[in-house]
Amino acid sequence: MKTAAALVLLLGAGTAHAQTSVAFYGLVDAAIVVEDGGSAGRVTKVTSGAAAASRFGLRGVEELGDGMAAFFTLEGGTKIDTGEIDAAGTIFNRQAYVGLRGKFGALALGRQYTPYHTAMVSIVDPFNTGYAGSAKSLFPHSGTNIRTSNTITYATPKKNGFDGELAYSVGEQSRAAAGRQFGGAIGYAAGPLAVRLVYNNKNTDVAANGAAPGVDRSIGRNILLAASYNAGWIKLHSGISSDRGDNAAPLINANNPYGGVRPTPSLDGRSYLLGISAPVMGGTLLASVLHKDDRTRFNQDANAWGIGYLYALSKRSGLYAAYGHVDNRNGAGYTVANNTESGSGDTAYNLGLRHSF
Length: 357
Fold this sequence. Notes:
A 16-stranded antiparallel β-barrel has the order 1-3-4-5-6-7-8-9-10-11-12-13-14-15-16-17. By secondary structure, the protein is mainly beta. Helix content is 8%, strand content 50%.
């Protein structure tokens, strides 16, 4: 017993000296989702992560002295409706990285979020890219525009409200440019105002897609201008995304959800959003209107809008309800998505519960 007690004291002393902390965390989210308007007709289901993807993870920090620290995150996703891992063959598919931070900023390596995603969640979309009504319905917020593997990121220190970030995802192909993705952002946030300009560039020419050496055919570019203003009684959200080139704006549901002629992903388009979030009757009211301007010869424009209400039962648990609708033009194939699903029609309803730990 004395030996065990001494060991506990020794481990505790070592932890205190190194100032190391490791936390287990997670989020559990499930909703009743009704989708309508597609060729599949009305679909009713229980969905995991309609508001925010259900997840579990470990994050840790070790203080190294002189303002420097090592940090890591390992985060996996799970499906509450079935109990499965949300991406087969993975464990920490959501985030997996290690890094150093200090007076110079922060440097990290691994699977990480893109600057485009960070701006969409924190500034542009009042729905935080979840729920029916999410900006995902019309903005190119899916796939590698959200997170990338084999990624090196650098974030500057924040000074007088200004900061910047860079991200480079290595394609790991015989030709350096093939499969790579890079981007960056500069922004200002102080008081009620936040503004951010983001650039994203990806090359999906890889050998598996039949790309020849030296050929760069499938390059997509996204430029996002994001701004929000918090007046206390209401917060205003806005975003404009210019999306050009192959794979710049893939359809979130490419499976011909409305039947007939398969929709064509826009190679030259603009996405617009105006939204609000406001405290109402002890909860939070969310609303947004969106427009897709397809500048190709197909002219497949779309309008969308969403409304939602979040009610906190405690600091960790809450209820939510949301509605979203898309009006497609000229054979466009946009669907009402939520955080984890692409949607199967032009209308959707969510009623859910979420708990964080």
